[in-house]
Amino acid sequence: MFICRHGETEWSLNGRHTGDSRVTKLMAGRTDLPLTKNGVRRMQEAAKALVGEDRLITSSTICQIFVSPRKRARQTLGILGLPDSIPVEETQALAEWDYGDYEGVTTEEIKKSRPSGKWDIWIDGCPGGESPQDVSERVDGLIRKIREIHKKALKEDVCGDVLLVAHAHILRSFSARWLVEPVSGGRHLLLDAGGVGVLTYILGRKLMIDTSITILMSLQLIVGMSQMVYPGMAELIVGKGIGPIISRPTAPIC
Questions:
Q1: Which superfamily, per CATH, for 2-10+34-97+125-235?
Q2: Catalytic annotation on 188?
Q3: What is the pLDDT of residues 12-45, one digit of tens each?
Q4: For every residue of the chain, which 3-state class applies, written as one string?
Q5: Residue-wise pLDDT tens digits, 48-65
Q6: Which of 8, 17, 45, 96 is the catalytic position?
Q7: What percent of the chain is predicted at pLDDT more than 70?
Q8: In 11, 17, 61, 157, which residue has its Cα 20 to 30 A from 118's Cα atom?
Q9: Could you tell me the pLDDT band of residue 206, with boundaries at 50, 70 and 90?
């Protein structure tokens, strides 16, 4: 299963939180930001490096795409250039964390506004928005749906790769829950704008590989297992158009 964070936006550049909160509704979509020109260019380069039958993301093996309803995610999916024949489902399960009162505010500004001077979204959540438990329940439903897709593909002996296109916090939360960790485990995972990662089943465990920076694992996973799957993967910087063309592993994704 592949996860892809949308490309660069103005707010991802300056660290302002852009979610799906009441501010978005009040501002009639002002925070539903498109990609920057540079974000579009980087995603185009990433698509060239990663999408193709001899690359990491092979359209012939993808049976389902799930995408956030936000403009920046849909725009990113369009740039990837996958065939229209692949079913696409827009789902609120992949909308970014509802930042509530913190929509459009940077982390440093949030900390300054709190009496303790501290804030950790993975523990504290967002007043007026979502708590970690809210997010966990949201992504858990999608994980159950994807597992049924994988089970069906295995039973019918057909390809069953799934692609998710969404946002940083929600994809990190999803990945933590995929690894059977609490949502707070997402703090240990990184996914840059335009980054692409892989979630799969290896030796009875679930593994995440983040191709945008390095190989990231939960505490339950064995350090060094990455070399069994994607040798040299950590050298690729996705979303910046730098790095080698990566082909699929010999082990199936689903």
A1: Phosphoglycerate mutase-like (3.40.50.1240)
A2: no
A3: 665 444 445 433 333 222 357 899 999 999 999 9
A4: CEEEECCCCHHHHHCECCCCCHHHHHCCCCCCCCCCHHHHHHHHHHHHHHECCCCCECHHHEEEEEECCCHHHHHHHHHHCCCCCCCEEECHHHCCCCCHHHCCCEHHHHHHHCCCCCCCHHHHCCCCCCCHHHHHHHHHHHHHHHHHHHHHHHHHCCCCEEEEEECHHHHHHHHHHHCCCCHHHHHHCCCCCCCEEEEEEECCEEEEEECCCCCCCCCCCCCCHHHHCCCCHHHCECCCCECCCCCCCCCCCC
A5: 988 998 888 999 999 999
A6: 96
A7: 71
A8: 11
A9: low
Sorting pLDDT into bands at 50, 70 and 90, what band is 183?
very high
Indicate if 8 belongs to the active site: no
C-alpha dist (Å) from residue 86 to 144, 160, 162: 20, 11, 10
**Largest separation between any pair of C-alpha atoms in the chain:** 57
The closest of 171, 184, 246 to 1, measured between CA atoms, is 171
- pTM of the entire predicted model: 0.76
d(CA 112, CA 8): 26
The one catalytic residue in 6, 17, 167, 169 is 6
